[in-house]
Amino acid sequence: MTPIGQQPGRRELRVSRTHAFTIIEMMVVISILVLLIALLMPALSKARIHTRRMVCASNLGQLAAATTTYTNDYNGVFPPHRHCALNTGRDWFNLLEEYGNSPEVSHCPELSESQTDFGVTWGWNYDAHYIGYGYNGFFLGVYSHPGCHLTNNSITSHGIRSTRWTRISSVVEPTKLIVVGDSHPKSNGGANLGVSLTLWWPFIHSFTEGVNGTRHHDTGVVGMADGHAEIVPDVDENLHPVADGGRDNLEYWDPLQRN
Ligand SMILES: [Zn+2]
């Protein structure tokens, strides 16, 4: 017969062994889970980037198609990129609301309440400054509203003249013509943020204009005049004009392809 005094000691030893075994098991399981998560994270991150890029492409394709539909009601003329006063409900994205645009369609899924582009921290909003989608305004709709007069109704840059009332019938190659694309508020290095509603081709290199090429994992997303969207790597090389004022890539911007 076991002495009564030894029973608590044996029970204590058995309980202690059980705890130690369970902790080791848990540590092994946790280690495996941590390893699995570490292995899966890059794949999940890539999937998320891909999904957001595809949603953005869908948005920009819809906006480009809405622009084409708009021209049907306005004698074939593209919408103006803005009114002379901003945020009066007459900027290009407002004018496309009847044709398929909405705040959801105009919201790139990579944009949140706070991100930084070229040293400028900003948050998405459905207005001229923070919409984050820009229109090819220099070539398609430069200040077309009555009352927004330009000298000789045109602007010249890189030896190319922009005129008002650009017609869709003048587009040489709709599959190549950028209508809208990812953009960011322009900055001259100061605290005041400029608009993001235009891609404004003439100053792409001097004021960080043009298509944003970093938002979607070093690609730029653009919507073309035939309503399809393209995901373009290295936008400075493949979409933007060169800094010295040359006409590289002008075929993607100028509906008349004057290069
Ligand atoms: Zn985007």
In short:
This protein is of the alpha+beta class and 259 residues long. 31% of the residues lie in helices and 13% in strands. Zinc ion is lined by residues 56, 108, 110, 182, 215-216, 221.
Small-molecule binders here are: zinc ion
The helix/strand class is: alpha+beta
Q: Which residues form runs of ≥5 with pLDDT under 50? A: none
What helical percentage do the residues reach? 25-40%
N to C succession of SSEs = HHEEEHEEEEEH
Tertiary shape: elongated
How far the N terminus sits from the C terminus, by CA atoms, comes to 106 Å
- Biggest sheet character: 4 strands, antiparallel
Tally the structural domains: 1
Question: Averaged pLDDT, please?
Answer: 84
Instruction: Give the strand order of the largest sheet, numbering strands 1, 2, ... along the chain.
Output: 3-6-7-8
Explain this structure to me?
The structure is a single chain. The chain is α+β, with helices and mostly antiparallel strands and 259 residues long. It has one domain (4-252). The protein is built from four helices and eight strands. The strands form three sheets. A four-stranded antiparallel beta sheet has the order 3-6-7-8. Strands 1-2 form a two-stranded antiparallel ribbon. The mean pLDDT is 84. Bound molecules: zinc ion.
Topology:
Elements: H1 7-73, H2 92-95, E1 115-117, E2 120-122, E3 133-135, H3 137-140, E4 154-157, E5 160-163, E6 178-182, E7 219-224, E8 229-233, H4 235-238
Antiparallel strand pairs: 1-2, 3-6, 4-5, 6-7, 7-8
The chain binds zinc ion.
